[in-house]
Design a protein that fits this description.
Order of helices and strands of chain A: HHHEEEHEHEHEEHEHEHEHEHEHEE
Helix content of chain A: 25-40%
Oligomer: homodimer
Strand order of the largest sheet of chain A: 4-3-5-6-7-13
Number of strands of chain A: 14
Largest sheet of chain A: 6 strands, parallel
Low-confidence stretches of chain A: 76-80
DNA sequence: CGGTACAACATGTACATACAACATAAATTA
DNA sequence: TAATTTATGTTGTATGTACATGTTGTACCG
């Protein structure tokens, strides 16, 4: 997955396009001269010319020999009503995201809107690409699942461009702290809390937790995990809390689990997993360790995905709105688009614990 | 006599345009290389490039790195560049379809195209809705997975509209018999054949097959199923072939399997399942019948989905290109869009048998 | 015979230079 | 003062070089 081959003139072009979006330059303005930009970007004048040439071809700029280069007025559209909504998720193919997409698509189709889809693979650079691509043509509104929401927002300028252009948008699952638009999410802290309360009520004391810490969902689920302990006046054994990132998810949590499970004493009797995907992997690890679920080790997942019931031992997990979230996001967004909403408010879904056969005692 | 103000690149451009008009070159032709023209016109390669660049922008030429410059088909371009590709699948959220979408999205994003997504839920009415919606605004091309491809095509008029408007399209998985566009699919008959051959080689004789018959994939997989029997000179026991439709898939195959497995004598020793999804469900049925996989009953699935390895008993299954199919569909479509393909041809993927622990003896 | 490696050639990117054409404002001149 | 010239800065044209990247056919090798 290496695509570092972005030509300079393309970078220049995108940078300049960003100026249009965020209002650095306005229609009618005189652009800096080719030579000045060349020096500012550290490229040759020819390279700037190539970028300008494409932008002129696309109608963003108009050049007048001897005078300078000007920003074109936003082509007063063909008057056509745009009925297209963008959806940017972190992943498309994995896990619960297809259900979110599905819910959104169904709701949009029933309203006569088209769905533009893109994904970021949890990479902020790709998030930028996706936003720029969507902004390149007319758009009614946007639904975005933030990328690595716990780590800041380098694409803030593009979100401001959205607001500048009056395109409403909604966040899914988490909100960037820098922004204040509406957001639909689950009460992840409560979910973590419910999971641990359930296990404590079953008599478990050594409960290990595995959380992905580069998005707010993991952070909040861990927060709930700790809160449940506090409620009981218990202290958490630090080495039973495993934190990892997206990049590490293929190995670190599995290896750590294997190490924890092979302990002679102090072996955890229950695992709280960041999501069902990890839970299923850890159940496999448990089997390989010669232990069984739920007799030796109880397991709790998150999201109530299809994986939860595909395995032989059905997984105890917490619900996630999934397709309902996609659907309601669209409904809220369409009301914002149609201007029928004064102050859009997000929604906090309350997760429910589904007790199946992976927890006991 | 100061009319010498015609730039060289403009003269070159006009000269080349004359070739289009007087038939010196025809659409699809390969233009002489930049270097050759530069020499012929007595100008530098850069000057030729500038002329070519404008002609490309106006739609006369298309350039392919490494191959050459080609004369475009005369399309009544509104000049406006549309870079949006539609993708219509039967389902979005389930099974292998997210992977196809993912492959397509990644390929499109890297080429600067946007992806319009819709789904039909395997319903021809919704397929019509989706097509109409996509046709409602400018579109570069379309990738479609046919709905119930074994049952005819009531939306033929819309496909003809696509051709009339010069919008290229590609079929996935199956092709409507009425149409003859390019199609990417797997060799499902071979897949069915491989599955049965494998089981016969293991000594199984009573092999039951479960096939969804309202799309061509199921029909072809059954065809391969029967062919493998013929090769061995064996006859198929008719009641071991279970056919069902999308609407029946929730109950009929499961109930029939339960009935077959509870037979005193004549119980099948192996099941060939339309796909992994059904295979996992049938493995559950087998467990409920007090039997085990693969000791009592062997199971073969199709598509090598994530379900195949999520279960305790890993599933023997046949590969499906999945995301590669989405990616290659996009690559083919973009070449068609850019007019760089004279006669687009589909592709037939060869499935491979992945032997895991669900087959034995 | 089939696969690999490589050479040849196509377009793509980047930089450099030089001068021409044009617009504008300041300086000069009638 | 008004017209003209000049200086300066802009984009436009033209050419050069160099290397990167993608495609294709051929020669080679197993």
């Amino acid at each position: 997955m290496k695509e570092k081959a972005v030509p300079k003139y393309m970078q220049v072009k995108q940078e300049i396009q960003a100026w249009f979006h965020n209002g650095t330059v306005k229609p009618g303005d005189l652009m800096p001269s080719e030579n000045e930009l060349a020096e500012r970007f550290g490229v040759s004048r020819q390279t700037v010319r190539q970028a300008f040439g494409e932008l002129e071809g696309e109608g963003w700029l108009s050049r007048i020999q001897g005078k300078g280069t000007f920003v074109s007025a936003p082509q007063a559209g063909h008057g056509e009503i745009v009925r297209t909504v963008g959806l940017i998720t972190t992943y498309i193919s994995d896990y619960i995201f297809p259900h979110i997409v599905r819910g959104a698509e169904a709701a949009l189709r029933s309203k006569g809107y088209r769905l533009l889809l893109s994904s970021t693979d949890n990479d902020k650079g790709r998030e930028r690409e996706a936003l720029e691509m969507m902004l390149g043509q007319p758009l009614s509104g946007l639904i975005i699942e933030p990328t690595k929401s716990a780590e800041g927002n380098p694409n803030l300028d593009l979100y401001l461009a959205l607001e500048y252009r009056g395109i409403p948008y909604i966040m899914l699952n988490e909100q960037y702290p820098e922004l204040d638009g509406p957001c639909l999410k689950t009460d992840d802290a409560l979910g973590g809390c419910l999971a641990v309360r359930h296990l404590l009520a079953l008599g478990h004391e050594k409960i290990a937790g595995f959380f992905k810490m580069d998005d707010m969902q993991g952070v909040n689920r861990l927060k709930g995990f700790r809160q449940a302990y506090r409620e009981k006046g218990l202290a958490i054994q630090p080495d039973l809390v495993v934190q990892y990132t997206t990049e590490e998810k293929g190995a670190k949590p599995l290896e750590t689990a294997l190490a924890l499970l092979s302990r002679e004493n102090g072996r955890p009797t229950a695992l709280v997993c960041y999501n069902d995907e990890l839970a299923v992997q850890l159940m496999e690890i448990i089997r390989q360790s010669g232990l069984s679920v739920p007799e030796d080790v109880a397991v709790v997942g998150f999201d109530d995905s299809s994986l939860a019931t595909a395995t032989e031992t059905k997984l105890t997990t917490l619900t996630h709105p999934k397709s309902v979230m996609g659907q309601e996001a669209v409904e809220l967004l369409l009301r914002m688009i149609e201007g029928k909403l004064s102050k859009p408010k997000g929604k906090l879904y309350t997760p429910e614990l589904i007790v199946r056969s992976s927890t006991k005692r």
